């Protein structure tokens, strides 16, 4: 009280506490318990995959330089894994291509996004898949199915953290890189280029920085020139023999140079 006048002290307001979403900010015991739980669950998942998935039906490999490639996850395998985990694939941009087809607009390349959601509708992982309509003789329906298949597999690998044992679907992959660089243009990459880049992104001999660069290109949709440069760098150059029709390696890429260290 001052001079007979009651003076109220200002009420101090506490600032709202902002809760961190970084797991490293969790209490140590909770963080350690969460890691142990995930480690145990992952072990159970891997054991289930080994026992439930069937080779050449749910997954398989191709021969690269005389050796089998990293196992490739096929659509039936992706469906089994998603069913077991209780996650559902959705394709948020599929309707755009359906609307374009119905309006009669020409579609040359399809790049679909797949989102995997849990029972609460929360998106837990996403993937992408591409297809050139021309390689399906203009059959839009087939191109949509093929690109959705690739996107589904890509999302499944990310959701379950399976890139260490599986790669993207490489059933029809041709790892040869032509020796003629395409002219600079905005023309989107071919489906084989896109699929091979997905395979490279998850390759154990590709560094983290290189994987991030490839992921950035895949997310925006690489041009043929961009894809050619990436594939030439990793896989080298090849030319097609006019008589046999077979691809002949002319120059090795950095992946072949790193391979001996991996096998030693």
Give an account of the 3D structure.
This protein has 264 residues and is α+β, with helices and mostly antiparallel strands. The chain folds into 2 domains: 102 residues; 92 residues, no CATH class. Helix content is 42%, strand content 15%. It is built from 8 helices and 9 strands. Strands 5-6-7 form a 3-stranded antiparallel β-sheet. Strand 2 and strand 3 form a beta hairpin. Helix 5 packs antiparallel against helix 6. It is globular, with a radius of gyration of 25 Å.
Question: What are its keywords?
Answer:
264 residues; alpha+beta; 2 domains; three-stranded antiparallel beta sheet; two-stranded antiparallel ribbon; 8 helices; 9 strands
